[in-house]
Design a protein that fits this description.
Strand content of chain A: over 45%
Helix content of chain B: under 10%
Radius of gyration of chain A: 13 Å
Shape of chain A: globular
Number of helices of chain B: 0
Radius of gyration of chain B: 14 Å
Order of helices and strands of chain B: EEEEEEEEE
Strand order of the largest sheet of chain B: 1-9-8-3-4
Structural class of chain B: mainly beta
Strand content of chain B: over 45%
Distance between the termini of chain A: 36 Å
Number of helices of chain A: 0
Shape of chain B: globular
Largest sheet of chain A: 7 strands, mixed
Number of strands of chain A: 11
Oligomer: heterodimer
Helix content of chain A: under 10%
Chain lengths: ~110, ~110
Protein backbone atom coordinates (compact mmCIF):
# COMPACT_ATOMS: atom_id res chain seq x y z
CA UNK A 1 0.00 0.00 0.00
CA UNK A 2 1.36 3.43 -0.93
CA UNK A 3 0.01 5.07 2.20
CA UNK A 4 -1.61 8.48 2.29
CA UNK A 5 -0.48 10.58 -0.65
CA UNK A 6 -0.35 14.36 -0.54
CA UNK A 7 0.50 16.89 -3.19
CA UNK A 8 2.26 19.15 -3.61
CA UNK A 9 4.96 18.50 -1.02
CA UNK A 10 5.97 22.13 -1.04
CA UNK A 11 4.05 25.20 -2.08
CA UNK A 12 5.24 28.78 -2.12
CA UNK A 13 2.73 31.42 -3.06
CA UNK A 14 2.06 35.10 -2.68
CA UNK A 15 -0.50 36.59 -0.37
CA UNK A 16 -3.91 36.74 -1.96
CA UNK A 17 -3.44 33.75 -4.21
CA UNK A 18 -5.57 30.63 -4.08
CA UNK A 19 -3.91 27.48 -2.78
CA UNK A 20 -5.22 23.94 -3.25
CA UNK A 21 -3.80 21.02 -1.33
CA UNK A 22 -4.61 17.47 -2.37
CA UNK A 23 -4.88 14.18 -0.56
CA UNK A 24 -5.43 10.57 -1.51
CA UNK A 25 -6.30 8.42 1.53
CA UNK A 26 -5.47 4.78 1.98
CA UNK A 27 -7.90 2.64 0.04
CA UNK A 28 -10.72 1.35 2.21
CA UNK A 29 -10.36 3.90 4.97
CA UNK A 30 -13.63 5.53 6.03
CA UNK A 31 -12.25 8.61 7.74
CA UNK A 32 -10.15 11.43 6.35
CA UNK A 33 -8.63 14.20 8.43
CA UNK A 34 -6.92 17.49 7.64
CA UNK A 35 -4.44 18.90 10.16
CA UNK A 36 -2.25 21.97 10.31
CA UNK A 37 1.04 22.12 12.20
CA UNK A 38 2.95 25.22 13.25
CA UNK A 39 5.60 25.83 15.85
CA UNK A 40 3.32 28.14 17.78
CA UNK A 41 0.11 26.11 17.77
CA UNK A 42 1.32 22.57 17.32
CA UNK A 43 -0.82 20.08 15.45
CA UNK A 44 -4.42 21.17 15.01
CA UNK A 45 -7.33 19.30 13.50
CA UNK A 46 -9.05 21.41 10.86
CA UNK A 47 -11.80 19.14 9.54
CA UNK A 48 -12.64 15.49 9.13
CA UNK A 49 -14.82 13.43 6.84
CA UNK A 50 -16.59 10.12 7.31
CA UNK A 51 -17.59 8.30 4.13
CA UNK A 52 -16.91 11.51 2.14
CA UNK A 53 -19.23 13.61 4.33
CA UNK A 54 -17.79 16.44 6.43
CA UNK A 55 -18.50 15.66 10.07
CA UNK A 56 -16.75 18.38 12.01
CA UNK A 57 -15.24 21.54 10.55
CA UNK A 58 -15.02 23.46 13.80
CA UNK A 59 -11.25 23.62 13.48
CA UNK A 60 -11.31 25.47 10.17
CA UNK A 61 -9.87 28.87 11.05
CA UNK A 62 -12.15 31.00 8.87
CA UNK A 63 -14.17 31.19 5.70
CA UNK A 64 -11.06 31.43 3.59
CA UNK A 65 -10.57 27.72 4.23
CA UNK A 66 -12.72 25.08 2.57
CA UNK A 67 -12.42 21.33 2.13
CA UNK A 68 -14.12 18.84 -0.12
CA UNK A 69 -14.15 15.12 -0.59
CA UNK A 70 -15.88 14.35 -3.89
CA UNK A 71 -15.15 10.63 -3.64
CA UNK A 72 -13.54 8.06 -1.37
CA UNK A 73 -10.12 8.45 -2.92
CA UNK A 74 -9.65 12.18 -3.10
CA UNK A 75 -9.90 15.29 -0.94
CA UNK A 76 -8.85 18.90 -1.30
CA UNK A 77 -8.17 21.69 1.14
CA UNK A 78 -8.43 25.13 -0.41
CA UNK A 79 -7.33 28.49 0.95
CA UNK A 80 -8.64 31.54 -0.85
CA UNK A 81 -7.25 34.13 -0.47
CA UNK A 82 -4.08 32.96 1.25
CA UNK A 83 -2.32 35.02 3.93
CA UNK A 84 1.18 34.81 5.43
CA UNK A 85 -0.25 33.46 8.69
CA UNK A 86 -1.47 30.40 6.79
CA UNK A 87 2.13 29.28 6.39
CA UNK A 88 2.35 25.85 8.00
CA UNK A 89 2.66 22.17 7.27
CA UNK A 90 -0.68 20.67 6.33
CA UNK A 91 -1.20 16.97 6.95
CA UNK A 92 -3.85 14.65 5.67
CA UNK A 93 -4.60 11.43 7.54
CA UNK A 94 -6.99 8.53 7.13
CA UNK A 95 -8.27 5.71 9.30
CA UNK A 96 -10.63 2.78 9.41
CA UNK A 97 -13.94 3.24 11.17
CA UNK A 98 -13.18 0.90 14.01
CA UNK A 99 -9.64 2.12 14.49
CA UNK A 100 -10.29 5.82 14.36
CA UNK A 101 -7.45 6.58 16.76
CA UNK A 102 -4.99 4.68 14.61
CA UNK A 103 -4.61 7.29 11.95
CA UNK A 104 -2.18 7.11 9.06
CA UNK A 105 -0.64 10.43 8.16
CA UNK A 106 0.65 11.59 4.83
CA UNK A 107 4.03 13.29 4.38
CA UNK A 108 2.48 16.74 4.57
CA UNK A 109 2.49 19.84 2.39
CA UNK A 110 4.73 22.67 3.51
CA UNK A 111 2.98 25.91 2.59
CA UNK A 112 4.76 29.23 2.56
CA UNK A 113 2.76 32.35 1.87
CA UNK A 114 4.87 35.46 1.24
CA UNK B 1 -10.97 14.73 25.24
CA UNK B 2 -9.06 14.25 28.49
CA UNK B 3 -6.22 16.74 28.98
CA UNK B 4 -2.77 15.20 29.08
CA UNK B 5 0.50 16.37 30.60
CA UNK B 6 3.87 15.04 29.52
CA UNK B 7 7.46 16.29 29.83
CA UNK B 8 8.57 18.76 27.20
CA UNK B 9 11.84 16.99 26.48
CA UNK B 10 14.06 14.08 27.46
CA UNK B 11 17.62 13.14 26.59
CA UNK B 12 18.94 9.61 26.44
CA UNK B 13 21.82 7.59 25.04
CA UNK B 14 21.92 4.80 22.53
CA UNK B 15 21.10 1.42 24.00
CA UNK B 16 19.22 2.83 26.98
CA UNK B 17 15.56 2.38 27.78
CA UNK B 18 13.45 5.51 27.55
CA UNK B 19 10.30 5.88 29.63
CA UNK B 20 7.90 8.74 28.97
CA UNK B 21 5.10 9.25 31.47
CA UNK B 22 1.87 10.96 30.59
CA UNK B 23 -0.62 12.20 33.17
CA UNK B 24 -4.34 12.14 32.38
CA UNK B 25 -6.18 12.62 35.64
CA UNK B 26 -9.56 13.18 34.02
CA UNK B 27 -9.58 10.07 31.88
CA UNK B 28 -13.08 8.72 31.30
CA UNK B 29 -14.24 5.13 31.49
CA UNK B 30 -14.46 4.77 27.72
CA UNK B 31 -11.16 6.49 26.96
CA UNK B 32 -8.19 4.74 25.42
CA UNK B 33 -4.58 5.89 25.60
CA UNK B 34 -2.75 6.30 22.32
CA UNK B 35 0.82 7.26 21.53
CA UNK B 36 2.18 8.73 18.32
CA UNK B 37 5.73 9.37 17.15
CA UNK B 38 6.75 12.18 14.81
CA UNK B 39 10.09 12.47 13.08
CA UNK B 40 11.23 15.82 11.68
CA UNK B 41 9.56 16.68 8.39
CA UNK B 42 7.18 13.72 8.61
CA UNK B 43 3.62 13.15 9.72
CA UNK B 44 2.90 11.53 13.08
CA UNK B 45 2.98 7.74 13.19
CA UNK B 46 0.81 5.56 15.41
CA UNK B 47 2.92 3.59 17.90
CA UNK B 48 0.67 1.90 20.41
CA UNK B 49 -2.71 2.02 22.07
CA UNK B 50 -4.02 0.55 25.31
CA UNK B 51 -6.84 0.61 27.82
CA UNK B 52 -5.38 -0.95 30.97
CA UNK B 53 -2.43 -2.96 32.31
CA UNK B 54 0.26 -3.55 29.74
CA UNK B 55 0.42 -3.60 25.97
CA UNK B 56 3.50 -4.53 23.99
CA UNK B 57 4.29 -4.52 20.30
CA UNK B 58 7.43 -4.64 18.21
CA UNK B 59 8.13 -0.96 18.79
CA UNK B 60 7.22 -0.17 22.39
CA UNK B 61 5.42 -1.11 25.57
CA UNK B 62 2.67 0.81 27.26
CA UNK B 63 2.14 0.51 30.99
CA UNK B 64 -1.14 1.66 32.49
CA UNK B 65 -1.75 1.46 36.26
CA UNK B 66 -5.05 0.35 37.71
CA UNK B 67 -6.37 3.89 38.25
CA UNK B 68 -5.51 4.80 34.62
CA UNK B 69 -4.63 8.37 35.61
CA UNK B 70 -1.26 8.05 33.99
CA UNK B 71 0.55 5.87 31.47
CA UNK B 72 4.16 5.22 30.55
CA UNK B 73 5.51 4.62 27.10
CA UNK B 74 8.64 2.51 27.21
CA UNK B 75 11.10 2.41 24.31
CA UNK B 76 13.63 -0.40 24.81
CA UNK B 77 17.26 0.07 23.78
CA UNK B 78 16.83 3.26 21.80
CA UNK B 79 18.94 4.16 18.82
CA UNK B 80 19.71 7.51 17.21
CA UNK B 81 16.78 6.97 14.86
CA UNK B 82 14.36 7.07 17.78
CA UNK B 83 14.99 10.80 18.13
CA UNK B 84 11.51 12.23 17.64
CA UNK B 85 8.56 13.90 19.31
CA UNK B 86 6.23 11.53 21.15
CA UNK B 87 2.60 12.46 21.71
CA UNK B 88 0.24 11.01 24.30
CA UNK B 89 -3.47 11.21 23.48
CA UNK B 90 -6.48 10.12 25.48
CA UNK B 91 -10.01 9.73 24.19
CA UNK B 92 -12.78 7.36 23.29
CA UNK B 93 -11.82 4.91 20.58
CA UNK B 94 -15.12 5.50 18.92
CA UNK B 95 -17.95 7.91 19.55
CA UNK B 96 -21.06 8.65 17.57
CA UNK B 97 -19.74 12.12 16.91
CA UNK B 98 -16.61 14.06 17.58
CA UNK B 99 -13.98 11.42 16.91
CA UNK B 100 -11.02 13.67 17.28
CA UNK B 101 -7.38 13.39 18.04
CA UNK B 102 -6.09 16.32 20.07
CA UNK B 103 -2.33 16.55 20.03
CA UNK B 104 -0.63 18.34 22.89
CA UNK B 105 2.92 19.61 22.84
CA UNK B 106 4.47 16.15 22.96
CA UNK B 107 7.80 15.07 24.43
CA UNK B 108 10.89 15.75 22.38
CA UNK B 109 13.25 12.81 22.85
CA UNK B 110 16.86 13.26 21.85
CA UNK B 111 19.00 10.13 21.66
CA UNK B 112 22.70 10.81 21.85
CA UNK B 113 25.54 8.56 20.69
Amino acid sequence: DAGVIQSPRHEVTEMGQEVTLRCKPISGHDYLFWYRQTMMRGLELLIYFNNNVPIDDSGMPEDRFSAKMPNASFSTLKIQPSEPRDSAVYFCASSLRREVYEQYFGPGTRLTVT
Amino acid sequence: LAKTTQPISMDSYEGQEVNITCSHNNIATNDYITWYQQFPSQGPRFIIQGYKTKVTNEVASLFIPADRKSSTLSLPRVSLSDTAVYYCLVGAAFKAAGNKLTFGGGTRVLVKP
